[in-house]
Every structure is written in C-alpha cells, then in structure tokens.
Amino acid sequence: MLNFNTIQEMVDRAEEQHCPLHEIVIQREIHDSQKTRDEIIAAMAANWQVMQASIERGISNTEKSLSGLTGGDAKKLYHYADKGYMGNEVLKAAAYAVGISEVNAVMGRIVACPTAGSCGIVPAALYAAKMERKLADEDIVKALFTAAGIGMVVDQNASIAGAAGGCQAECGTAAGMAAGALVELAGGTPAQIGNAVALSIKNLLGLVCDPVAGLVEVPCVKRNGFAAIEAMLAADMTLAGIESVIPVDEVIDAMNRIGKALPKSLRETSEGGLATTATAQAIEKRIYK
Fold first, then answer.
1. Alpha-carbon distance 138 to 48, whole Å?
2. pLDDT(263) > 90
C-alpha cells in the first residue's frame, strides 16, 4: 500500500524500507500520477528553478505592488544582513522569504507551497540551507518531496487554506514543511523529521488570517519572513535532540480543531484582526475608492 494519511505512517514506512522519507513520497506520486520517476523528479526540479528565480528577483526588487503596500523590503533586509542581531544567514533567509512574497504581490512567477500566501517559506529556508551548506540542487529537490508529503498530510487532516483554518493553515503548514525538509537535508531520521514538523506547527497554532483590504500583502508578506526563521529554529531544536511532547499527528489534529474554532472574521474575510484597525480601514478606502 502506497497511500499514507499521517506523518507517522510516512515515518513507519520509511523505517520499514530503510529509506529516506522523500522516497516514500516519490513512490506514492509515481503510483498516483502514473508518471515515471524521471518525469516526477524533473517536474520538481523545474519547481525548484522557479523558486530560486523568485528569490533572486525578490532580493533585488524595488517594484511596489498595485496597492502600494509592499515592495522593496526584501532588498532592504538583504543588504542589512551583516549588521543584524540574528546573523547574516538567518537574516538573508528572512529576506528570501519576504522577497518571494513580494514577487507574488506584483504578480510575478512563484510556486505556491502550499499556497501563494505562504509561498516564501519553504524555498527561502531551503535556499538558505543550500547557500550555507553548499548543498547540491539534487538534494534540495529530494527534500522538496519530503516537504510535499508533509503538506499532503496536513491537507488531508486539517487544512492548508486560510479561509478554512486561518494563517496557521498556510504559514503554519509551510513552516512545518520547511522544518521537515531541513532536517532531512541535515541527515536527520524520519522520526526527527516528524518531530520538527510538530515543533514548527505547534508554535504557530492559532495564527489568524486577517489580510488588510483583502490582499495577500499585509501582514502576509512579512509573516513569510518570520515563519521561515521559525522553521529553521524547529529544525535546529530537533537536531539538537529536543523533542516535542505532543506527537506530530496530534499537533495537526489540534490545528484542525483550532481552525474550525476560529470565527469567520479571522479566516481570510478581512472582517477582524489587523484588517479592522483604523489604519487598515483607511487603506481599504484609499484602494477601493
């Protein structure tokens, strides 16, 4: 049986077959898509090329979005990276994530992973790992399958849509995907990958979706930067031997229940949260006058 419905099932299958987690996801994709292994890997490699191109555009972009709310912040952060508290690599990772989201805001080409609103998190974290550890693109592509498998499980058991589960469903899921992929790239075990997902999602439970003026710009763009760093910290905690008290699939179940408990006003309707502040209301009137 190639199907899996939980992270633990993925982990168990990888341990039984003595293979990396990405191999379990590839096997399922071969079965479901009826495509060859080479075709599937080539498609993911093409996604990775788009992700890298969006990073390169993002960190040099000065173009403002049509609303005027976003654009140019990734470039600022990228050039500040040597001066910050958090160090060059961490701040550049945040800049990559913000940059991709800014590219999305100006209708540029991105990969929704798992959504357009959270598109910066996975590629930023993996690109940062590539640059810091001099990793091969082939290894990143394999890790992207691990990230995809994690996203599939969350989608099956909770949600990846802000309208259904709040921003925890979008940025939270993306952070979990990124954390798991980072652990695999560092040589972590399948069980450690699951642990990183738990730590990452757990920290973002309850995050609301409250876009100003209904646009995927404020606070979405900067949230991508924060969540990319959160994913990296979850990976490092795991690799340091820190374990989540709550198992990953129970964390995902909690995410599902929390998402359902969130009022409609905090699920992408722009009827609550930051979207209803005085400044946000003034922005909305200006944009839609």
1. 10
2. yes
